[in-house]
Design a protein that fits this description.
By secondary structure, the protein is α+β, with helices and mostly antiparallel strands. The protein contains twelve helices and eleven strands. The two termini are 68 Å apart. The model has no long low-confidence stretch (mean pLDDT 77).
Length: 443
Amino acid sequence: MRGGLRSRLFQAIGVVVLICVALTIGLGLVLTRRAVQKATLQDLAHQVDLIAPSLRNSVASAKNSLEQLTPYFKQQHEQWLTNQAELLPTRAQDRLAHLLPAQGTIDYNGVAEYFAAQPLNPGTFILLRPQSTAGARWSPYIWGLLIAAGAGGLLAAIAALLLARRISRPVDRIAAAARSLTRGTHPEPVPVEGAAEIATLAIAFNDLVEQLQRAQEAERNFLLSVSHELKTPLTAIRGYAEAVQDGVVDPREAAATVTAEARRLERLVKDLLDLARMNRTDFSVHNAEIDLAEVVEDAVRRYQPQAAGFGVSLHAVTDGPAPADADADRVLQVVSNLVENALRLTQPGGEVRVVAAPGELRVEDTGPGLLESDRERAFDRFYLHERYGRERPVGTGLGLAIVKELTLAMGGSVDVESRPGELTVFTVRLRTPVAAREELVAQ
């Protein structure tokens, strides 16, 4: 994969460079040829400009003068003509007829020639030079172009190789780190370097690794906590079973303890199943407009016998309908968890109140409360159980976590306020239907 990316980048850049070099050479040749042709014509015209005046001044001896210059013309591969303007192109003849100089190209005796002509009045002086002689003049330019193109191509190839390596190196590191991650190891963060897109990819990969590490650590802590919580009731059940078998404990006392621990184990398993269900991809809530007052009264009615058994006063406080946009079954589960938690902690003679208002419900109790340092982590799994498990009759340690998960799933929020020993309030805030919200504003 690494070699493939690097080689493809190198090949792509190389092809682009070759195309650019070829276009540059082609354009350079065309421009060079035109420049040589223009220089040749100017050279011929300059010679004619020098010779023509002397021919006009001595018309009688013009031919003799030209014959004397013939050896010089031959050295330049040139030849002269007089009074043969009809051989020239029509445009050149028109210029000569108007006593103007002319220059260009013609075919003379099957040979492509450059020409320059001047009117002598009478007659015309024409100087010819084969176009083939221009090749010797512009061949150095061709070699210069080829050498420059070769040097440029070589430098471009080196630059392409370095650029391909620079682009592929960060990708190689990310790929190697990804392979390490698939093997179960945690790679070091990859350097953030290269182009903006590559740097963004590195940042995203580092974030992914960090989130995966946090998730694995959370899963590990969760499994350790679950293992501990499962081990506690199982140890008690096994201990009392062995004690009954040895005849050292009253069977009725053992049965009561086993029953209590079995119920605790049952609650723990139920809470774990609820959490597992909420973490599944197909978990969903079905929000609709509901009356929180009805849900609160239903929950209080269900827990009245348990409250009476604990010697705790349980009341529902409502002031007419309390509309909210939520899932009625999930809200009932939230209220049930909070009420069960409050009843368990409140001492006999204490009070638990469940208050419903539009888009909000509160569960208040006169239990021992929470310290300020514990409120931020009150909804963490097993935190309060580990913090107060030996001091208070706490549950499995998952109830409040389930409350938070369900509330967030319905688009709401939950928080806790507490004055230890006086009052603790869990507040669940849910979305309020538009009509109810407008009515509240109008009031």
